[in-house]
Amino acid sequence: MSKPLQDATKALSYIGQTVLVELRWEDDNELLWRCYHIVGAVLPVPGVFDTGYFLTVPFCGSVDFPDEIYFDSIRTIQPMRQRDNRGAGKVLGHIALPEPSAPWSDLPAREATITEGERRHA
To answer: Using one digit for the tens of pLDDT, what is the confidence trace for 44-73?
Structure first.
């Protein structure tokens, strides 16, 4: 797994930014993309606390307390650029869209007719 956060200076440069993060854990092969506001960082201290992490809040929604995103679970991290008159941020062009496991036509009739606002749980 690549290590995008090699030093404290790089980690601290993300504080106050909105970032797109690709997460992956060692025991799980599934990738997870999320957008967060980084509000703080805890840096590793060798021999005391070996794993650093970001304090984050979700891009959409609100929480009472920030969540932790550990540096070793971050596969890639990209700051979101502000929109300008020429188009959307540049980060979104780097995201590979996932291939659907089954086309809509192959889904059972009930799943294909879920309406807006309706929730479906696995």
So the answer is: 888 898 889 999 999 887 889 999 999 989
By CB atoms closer than 10 A (0-12, 13-18, 19+), residue 74 is buried
Selection from 15, 21, 18 nearest residue 2 by Cα: 21
Note the pLDDT of residue 88.
Answer: 46
Tokens of 70: 């550990």
Q: What is the secondary structure of the chain as a DSSP string?
A: ---S--SHHHHHTTTT-EEEEEE--TT----EEEEEEEEEEE--BTTTB---EEEEEESSS--SSPEEEEGGGEEEEEEPPPPBTTBS-SGGGGPPPPPPSS-GGGS-HHHHTPPTT-----
Nearest alpha carbon to residue 19 among 1, 2, 41: 41
- At residue 1, does pLDDT exceed 60? no
Average pLDDT over residues 73-99: 63
